Amino acid sequence: MCPGYGRGVTEEIRWGVVGPGRIAEKVVEDFAVVDGARAVAVASRSLDRATDFAHRHGLERAHGSYAEILADAGVDVLYVATPHPQHHAVALGAIAAGKALLVEKAFTATLAGAREVVDAARAADVFVMEAMWTRFQPAVVRLRELIADGAIGEVRSVQADLGVAREFDPADRLFARELGGGALLDLGVYVVSFAQHLLGAPDTVAATGSRFETGVDAEASLLLGYADGRSATLTTSLRNALPGQARVFGTAGWVDVLPRFHHPQTIVLHRAGAEPEEITRPQTGAGYSHELAEVTECVRAGRGESSVMPLADTLAVMDVLEQAAGQLGVAFAEDRAVL
C-alpha cells in the first residue's frame, strides 16, 4: 500500500514530480492552495534539469533518474508528467514501490499498456488516477449536478471540440510518434473523456482525419455511437485552432460549456420554455488544485481509486482513442526502457 495510506487526517501527503516539463511547471504551483499536500521532490533523466526545477519551485530534493524517485522513501504520491509512452513503465515501477499515482493524460500510449497499469494497481491496492482535471473543475461539477437533477432531461448527445494551430516541427514532442505525439493523445483525450463521462463507453467509434509526415495524427473528427441512439460528435486538431467549447443536449434542454470547456468557469443552462441561466464557478488556483486535492484525500482515506475519475473510465477512453488512431493509420508503443 502507498506509504500515505492510513495516515492521520492532519498529516501531510508528500508528492514527487516525474518529468519537469511544461505541464508540470503549471501543476506544481497549485500545491500552494491544496491543504495537506506538498511537493517535495522531482525527477528527470537530466539532474541539471531536475535541480533547476527544484530550485525554482522550492522542492527539497532533485533526482537525476526516475528510478531514484521511486526509491525515495520521503514521497507518498508521484505525479507523472513525462511523454505518454513513458507513463507505463514509470507507473508500474511506482506501483511496485507502493507509491500512489496521478498520471497525466493520455494515461498511456496504448490500451494494452493502460490495462497492465490498472491491473497492477488493483492487484497491489495502490491508488492510481488519470490527471483529467476537467472532471474536477467547479463548473463541470455543477454541470454534473444539474444533469443528475434532471435539469435537461435525459442526455442524448454531446458535442465538443479542442484544437490549436501548431507549426509542424518534427523535433517537437507533439509531432514525434515515438513520444506519443499527435492531436488525439494530447487534445483528443479531453473531448473523448468529456463525452465518456456523460454518456459512458460507446458501442461504435468512427473517425476521419489526417496525418503529419511523421506518422502522427494531425486532426480527427470522431462520431461515437450508442446502441440506444445516443451520440457524441467530437473534433480535435493540431492543424487549426478550434473554439474549445462543448454542448450537452438533453430531452428537456441543453447546457453550453463555454470555452475552453476542458477548464471552464461558466456554463449556460437552457431549459425548455425558460430564459438561459448563466452559472459561473471559478477555479481555485490555476485549476489543477482540484485534482490534486482529490488524490490527496483519496490517499489519506485509503481508497484505491477516484469515484469521479475511476480507472474503468480511463480504460474506456483509451479504447476509443486507440480505435480512432487505428482508423487513421496511427499506432503507438510503450517505452519500456525509461527506468
What does this structure look like?
With 339 residues, this protein is of the alpha/beta class. It has two domains: 13-133 and 289-306, Rossmann fold (3-Layer(aba) Sandwich); 138-282 and 320-327, 2-Layer Sandwich (Dihydrodipicolinate Reductase, domain 2). Helices cover 32% and strands 24% of the residues. It is built from nine helices and 14 strands. It has helices at residues 22-27, 47-57, 66-70, 84-96, 111-124, 138-148, 183-199, 289-301, 311-327, and strands at residues 13-18, 37-43, 61-63, 77-80, 100-103, 128-130, 155-163, 204-211, 217-225, 231-237, 246-250, 253-257, 266-271, 277-280. The chain has an eight-stranded mixed sheet, with helices on one face. Helix 4 (84-96) packs parallel to helix 5 (111-124). The chain is globular and about 60 Å long. Belongs to the Gfo/Idh/MocA family. It holds the Pfam family GFO_IDH_MocA_C3. GO terms for molecular function: nucleotide binding; oxidoreductase activity. InterPro entries: Gfo/Idh/MocA-like_OxRdtase_N, Gfo/Idh/MocA_domain, GFO_IDH_MocA-like_dom, NAD(P)-bd_dom_sf. Residues 13-130 form the Gfo/Idh/MocA-like oxidoreductase N-terminal domain.
Query: Percent range for helical residues?
Result: 25-40%
Mean pLDDT: 96
Q: Segments where pLDDT lies below 50 for 5+ residues?
A: 1-10
CATH superfamily of the largest domain: Dihydrodipicolinate Reductase, domain 2
Helix and strand run = EHEHEHEHEHEHEHEEEEEEEHH
* CATH class descriptor of the largest domain: Alpha Beta
Question: Which structural class fits the helix and strand makeup?
Answer: alpha/beta
Using the coordinates shown, work out and report the CATH topology of the largest domain: Dihydrodipicolinate Reductase, domain 2
Give me the Rg, rounded: 20 Å
Largest sheet: 8 strands, mixed
The number of distinct β-strands equals: 14
